[in-house]
Amino acid sequence: METYNIAVVGTGAVGQELLNVLAERNFPVGDLKLLATERSAGKEVEFKGKKYVIEETKPESFKGVDIALFAGGSASVEFAHHAVAAGAVVIDNGSAFRLDPKVPLIVPEVNPDAVKNHQGIIANPNCSTIQMVAALAPIHKNATIKRIVVSTYQAVSGAGAEAIDELMEQSQQCLNNNSVEKNVFPKQIAFNMLPHIDIFLENNYTKEEMKMVNETKKILNDQSIQITATAVRVPVVTGHSEAINIETVNKITRKDAIEILQQTPGIIVIDDPSNIQYPMPIDVKGKDEVFVGRIREDESIEKGLNLWVVADNLRKGAATNAVQIAELLIQK
Asked: Which of 7, 9, 147, 328 has its CA 20 to 30 A from that of 63?
């Protein structure tokens, strides 16, 4: 079997999950290079029974690398073009290149052929966008979506390992009736919800909300879809949830939607109200599929549908989607 030299840039929550997914999916890794900041350099990480020493990321770090998986953050802005110049294909979890018209933005179940158009960099979409688009693309294909209203309920792990620690520490502080310390989030997250993810923009939406708007249009290759979003951070460790309302050109029933989604790769439908069955973050942790439930027709409009969509934001929302893109790359 042909193997590929891989660099994983970033060793936090997403970086570790990238290694887990590479191992689980038996990706044909040849040489493996782990790159991170100077602070993490020298630490050891195990991959498939072998220990690797993390190196500090430098412009010359990508010599001999075939595929560079960037976990996100500022590293891709600083080093992605160096990786491409060295001959690597970059798959980037950060937001820097997602809306660049020269950079494909890919969810493999939705627009796999876009991988052929890369010029050295391929972007992994935002975690909340990935699961929404995965669920809506087959419906759009069958009924043509003209409007999306989405509210997200996003886990703290989307903000990194330090955010998980902050939730745990604040929860303990609250339970002990101690004052709450805030470092990662601007407000208390324990036993609370923050209608605020990323920075506020001039239009009073957050950057996270506008990512969903703009990335969805690019991935579905349809600028006519009207989209509005509200992104909320909730005190859940792993697993993003989304309440999605769509309006379609053609009528689609609950039964139709269930049948379409059940036939879609990467989607699992859990929808049985009589037995109180619906997807929840606690059930999808560690899983790579997108889970859909609470499917029901919107009684306020003629051609509307409501869905509840849940996925592991560190897996399908980041690492798994990136590795799936790498698999597409070597297949095509």
From this structure: 328
Query: Torsions phi, psi of 84, nearest 5?
Result: -65, -40
Closest alpha carbon to 193 in 225, 230, 142: 230
In this predicted model, what pLDDT tens digit does every residue of 131-173 receive, in sequence order?
999 999 999 999 999 999 999 999 999 999 899 999 999 999 9
User: What's the pLDDT score for residue 1?
Assistant: 76
Return d(Cα 189, Cα 163) in angstroms, integer.
9
Do the Cβ atoms of 284 and 255 come closer than 8 Å? no
Q: Over the chain, what is the mean pLDDT?
A: 97
Which of the residues are catalytic?
A: 127, 240
Distance between CA 143 and CA 189 in Å, rounded? 39
CB atoms within 10 A of CB 58: 12
195: its two tokens: 């209608």
Q: Are the C-beta atoms of 122 and 115 separated by less than 8 Å?
A: yes
Q: How far apart are CA 55 and CA 63, in angstroms?
A: 13
- Cα first-last separation, the chain: 16
For residue 72, give the 3-state DSSP assignment: coil
What is the per-residue pLDDT across 28-67, written as a single tens digit (0 to 9) for each?
A: 999 999 999 999 999 999 999 999 999 999 999 999 999 9
CA dihedral 99, 101, 103, 108 (to 10 degrees): 80
Burial class, 55, CB count within 10 angstroms (exposed 0-12 / middle 13-18 / buried 19+): middle
- The pLDDT assigned to 332 comes to 79
Q: Rounded to an integer, what is the distance from CA 156 to the centroid of its chain?
A: 13
> CB under 8 Å to 271, separation ≥6 — which residues?
258, 277, 278, 292, 293, 294, 295
Q: Can you name the residues that pair with 68 across neighbouring β-strands?
A: 7, 90
Task: Report, as ranges of residue numbers, the positions in the chain whose pLDDT lies below 50.
Answer: none
Please count the residues of the chain: 332
